[in-house]
Amino acid sequence: MIRVVFVAASLLFLILAWIAGPDHRFSDVLYLLSYGFGGWFGLLSALRSLAAKDIDIDLLMILAALGAAWIGAPAEGALLLFLFSLSNVLQEYAIGRTHRAIESLAKLKPASARKLANGSEPIHCPLEEIHVGDQIRVLPGDLIPLDGHVVSGDSSVDESSVTGESIPVNKTSGAKVFAGSLNKNGSLTVQVERESADSTLARMISLVEHAREQKAQTQRMLEDFEKHYAAGVIVFTLLLIAVIPRLYGVSFNEGFYRAITVMVVASPCALIISTPASILSAIARGARCGILFKGGIPLERGARIRAIAFDKTGTLTQGRVKLQQIITYHPDRSEAEILGLAASIESHSEHPLAKAIVQEARARGLTLPALESFESTPGRGVTAKLEGRKHWVGRSSWLKDIGVFIDPDKSDELRSLQDDGFTAIGVAESTPDGSTRLLAWIALSDSVRPDAAETLRQLRQSGIHEIAMLTGDNERVARRIASELGIDTWHAALLPEDKVQLIRDLSKRSDIAMVGDGTNDAPALASANLGIAMGAAGSDVALESADIVLMASDLNKLPLALNICRATRRIVLQNLSFALGIIAIMVVLTLTLPIWGIEVPLPIGVVAHEGGTVLVCLNGLRLLVGWHK
Ligand code: ADP
Ligand code: MG
């Protein structure tokens, strides 16, 4: 705000000085005041840079204005400082808009919640005092304060702030809700699943904040370049001061004036702001649509992607797996007993298959025995100790590796389940005599996301020429889904490390993005040129490893995400060439027009320079408002 006042004061004194005319006795004082207000912040910044042995644009402007005053053109100098400070304020406003778009996320975090304690009336509690497992009441019109699932109640919830999805979603018992979404019409009782600091919203805010700090490569290059360039401009100006009078046969003062004009039009303001103005807009725009770009680098990389590899479960499929069939092999144990045991182990896993098993056990009202230990092996299965024995739930190849004996009959039954299109996993236990035996096959199925085919079509249309599917599931299921979606490159029965290897191989041909959701995908996400995680529903490790997160786990946001990347590159290039173009044209005009007797006035140089800077910022803002088609 103070800056705006200074800009206004600078203009006011400039006008007063101009009205008073050069012969008025206060004229010098008025110009001095105008210089003071217009140049104050620039001077501070120039001194700060000088203290760090850097030369910046502010210094160039201050020098130019002082030079103008020295040769008796204080009006031009004051105008320069006024326009320079005005354009800085406008730039700050433009960039501030993107900051505000992100800060509005933080406002979505209420400070307290209504905690339900033992059936009594809910009490207001600070969020920090609410822990996993507590139940809270969310009334109509409330922001949902914490991540969790609905225990009772029925309401429609506007999740647009978290997921970018504008249509309210109906939530009933069992549905997940996210902190920061708005409860519209009903009252909900929610069981808390994450502490306030780990909520999806909190993670999103911290990710976006980090994103802003992570500079794009172009931006870093430009900042290095600024220092050398600014020094170069000063040297060039001194050189011009020396040679212009001789070259053009003009007086020292005239030559000096022309040199200062060159110094102003050659300053790289527009060049420096061109990239951050665009990148910040793109990040803010992404955050509005439920796409999280972790900084400028993902945006730059996203624009180069020509191939995409997809994980299957939870990414191309809905991840809403259903248990279809159980074949048991234990003579004394019932199906219910084996399912209960498997569910008890899987209740500690975040895998979509695991969730389906737990869900089925709950639906059948089974009690789950308590575990003594638990271990997850991503992409293979889970191990646990219960009732004094080791148990395994996972893929058949993994069980074989562990030494579980699977006789040919059981292998045949497994194959026939897979032929029916099911994902089948085995349950095994160790026996008192030290061997292991297979207890059951559990067959599960998952359906393809309804929008997957359309998304793939859009991606192909936008220039992605290779689409591959990488899955840890068996070959038969993979083939069925690949043919359903028209994917010609697919690889099945992969372990997490195989996915990494395939990504490396594929990335030799073209820049590749990996899209995945699970813990098992995290290494592949990290090794692809660009990692894209399926957001809120995905595992935490996947979110950490990815460069871009699709918050709503909406596959159909993927084309938009890549689109924003490409638009950002386009706008950055436009800005860079525009900024360089203005510099080149103005420098050439300032130095050549005098040959034909036309002097470029300093004010025109200043307007071209500052106008260019503001235009570049506005061009970047197009990304924020979505006018970049
Ligand atoms: P995808 O690549 O399709 O996402 P994963 O790599 O996560 O699949 O898993 C590959 C296979 O490993 C699964 O098809 C399943 O057989 C087995 N598996 C992985 N995690 C689990 C688990 N928690 N419980 C049972 N089986 C699992
Ligand atoms: Mg997966």
Enumerate the spans where pLDDT stays under 50 for 5 or more consecutive residues: none
The main β sheet shows up as:
7 strands, mixed
Main sheet: which strands, in order across?
10-22-21-20-11-18-19
Secondary structure tally: strands: 22
Distance between the termini: 34 Å
The tally of domains stands at 4
Count of alpha and pi helical runs: 22
Small ligands present: adenosine-5'-diphosphate, magnesium ion
Overall geometric form:
elongated
State the share of residues found in helices, binned by percent.
40-55%
Oligomer: single chain
Category by helix and strand content: alpha+beta
- The Rg value, from CA coordinates, equals 32 Å
Mean pLDDT metric: 84
Approximate strand percentage:
15-25%
Could you characterize what this model shows?
- There is one protein chain.
- The chain is an alpha+beta fold and 629 residues long.
- The protein folds into four domains: 1-99; 112-198, Calcium-transporting ATPase, cytoplasmic transduction domain A (Distorted Sandwich); 205-306 and 511-629, no CATH class; 319-446, Calcium-transporting ATPase, cytoplasmic domain N (3-Layer(aba) Sandwich), CATH 3.40.1110.
- Helix content is 54%, strand content 17%.
- It contains 22 helices and 22 strands.
- The strands form four sheets. It has a seven-stranded mixed beta sheet with strand order 10-22-21-20-11-18-19, sandwiched between helices. A six-stranded antiparallel beta sheet has the order 2-1-3-9-4-7, with no helix packed on it.
- The longest helix has 35 residues, at 558-592.
- Magnesium ion (MG) binds at residues 311, 313-315, 516-518, 521.
